[in-house]
Amino acid sequence: MMAPVPELVDSSARSPSATRSERRLSILDRVRLALLAAGLLCVLTGLLPRAEAAANMRRIGPLLLFLAAVIVLAELTRQAKVFDAIAHRLAILGRGHYPALFGLCVLFASATTILLNLDTTAVLIAPVMLALAAPARIPPLPLAMTTLWLANTASLLLPVSNLTNLLAADRVALTATGFAGRMWAPQLVSIAATTVCLWVWYWRRGRRETDRYVPPEPIRPANSRERALFFATAGACVLFIVAIPVVGDRIGVAAAVAALIASAAFAVFDRGALRLSLIPWQLLVFVVGLFLVVPTLSRFGLGDAMRALIGSDPGAPGAFRAAAAGAGLSNVANNLPAYTAGEAVIPAQNGDQLLALLIGTNVGPIVTPWGSLATLLCLEFCRTHGVRVPMRRFVLTGVALATIATAGAVAALLVTG
Question: pTM for the full model?
Answer without folding.
Answer: 0.77
